[in-house]
Design goal:
By secondary structure, the chain is an alpha+beta fold. Helix content is 40%, strand content 13%. A hairpin with a 2-residue loop joins strand 7 and strand 8.
Length: 271
């Protein structure tokens, strides 16, 4: 029987050079001003509108050399870089701010945000609640009550504080861009990058060897399961192309995170 070979975007470790790191650190955190608003990582030499257009094409099977480079570097940083609370100077300072104090709350929100490639989801920045401040409160462990209609409520004071924290995330992201610690070298990244339903976000601490090993085992099981499923498979195709072709049954629930997704969520869970 023919052997199916999935076409993973990153089948092996990726090389991150000193030049790549300098290029990433020259990116800027730009506020995308729609819906609730949220920050994005925009390459330093790329106009914001061009970035939005290129990102839209990239996520719809288009191509962009700049976005491809950004994807590789973002995946390496998000999974492997160290970043912690503290006071940071900002070279590319939004609104003229030259330094910013990143708190533990900021770091928790950065990790838990709904990332879509190189930007936080403007409509649902931190979860699925129609009021994003409720999602922030859940992430930070704040008390949530229920109103007369059963709706979640956090109170006016907490609502205002969550709104202020959300607006500060642009400065937090700028601090991350400029100061997250990653050395040049060959780095493990998710096999399919930021494609599809995969959730990647800044871990802010490298994954454990056990997490990486478990992820690799699951990828191998996915390869094996899909290879057994087809008697006459195409020469190679991506995991997403396989999902579109056949939505059911090849991956046991114990080996997937969500609906036929590679278990990247577990890889990005901070233990």
């Amino acid at each position: 029987m023919p052997t199916l070979k999935l076409k993973w975007k990153f089948a092996d470790k990726v090389e991150i050079t000193g030049e790549d790191i300098a290029w990433f650190q020259a990116c800027h955190a730009t506020w995308m001003n729609r819906d609730a608003g949220a920050p994005a990582i925009v390459p330093g030499d790329m106009p914001v509108q061009d970035f939005e257009n290129a990102l839209g094409e990239k996520l719809n099977e288009g191509s962009s050399a700049v976005l491809s480079r950004l994807e590789k570097i973002v995946c390496a940083f998000f999974l492997n870089a160290r970043f912690m609370a503290g006071s940071y100077s900002l070279r590319q300072s939004p609104e003229g701010t030259t330094s910013f104090m990143v708190t533990h709350e900021h770091v928790r929100l950065l990790r838990a945000a709904n990332w879509r490639a190189a930007m936080i989801d403007c409509k649902r920045p931190y979860g699925d609640d129609t009021h994003y401040t409720n999602d922030m409160a859940r992430i930070l462990g704040l008390p949530i009550t229920r109103g007369p209609q059963g709706d979640a409520q956090i109170g006016a004071e907490a609502e205002a504080r969550m709104g202020a924290l959300h607006e500060e995330m642009r400065f937090v992201l700028q601090a991350y861009i400029e100061h997250a610690e990653l050395l040049p070298g060959d780095w493990f990244v998710p096999c399919d990058g930021w494609d599809g339903d995969v959730t990647i976000a800044p871990r802010c601490t490298p994954p454990t060897s056990a997490q990486v090993a478990a992820y690799r085992r699951t990828i191998a099981a996915i390869d094996e399961s899909i290879a057994r499923r087809f008697e006459d498979p195409p020469a190679d195709f991506t995991f997403l192309e396989w999902v579109i072709r056949d939505r059911g049954g090849a991956i046991p629930a114990s080996q997937a995170s969500g609906d036929l997704r590679i278990p990247t969520d577990a890889l990005f869970t901070v233990e």
